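Researcher: Here's the sequence for the chain we discussed earlier.
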Amino acid sequence: MKISYNGLWKILIDKNMQKKDLINKIGISSTTIAKMGKGEKVSLDVIERICSYFDCDIGDIISFDRNGQNDQTILK
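Model: Thanks. This is the structure I predict for it:
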């Protein structure tokens, strides 16, 4: 299952912000933003800070792509 941050990217567009603005406003690293751009996992602390900044819920910024795969082997 792959993580999608499309909700976050949409919020940034709606608020006329760039990823670098988010980095500066909430103090996350560019590496974290790069991981999010690749659909990789980030810490819950980062998600919490983003939600707090935008006054939104987790589901507003992330979702799961049940058909996508991540770097872990899926057991059947």
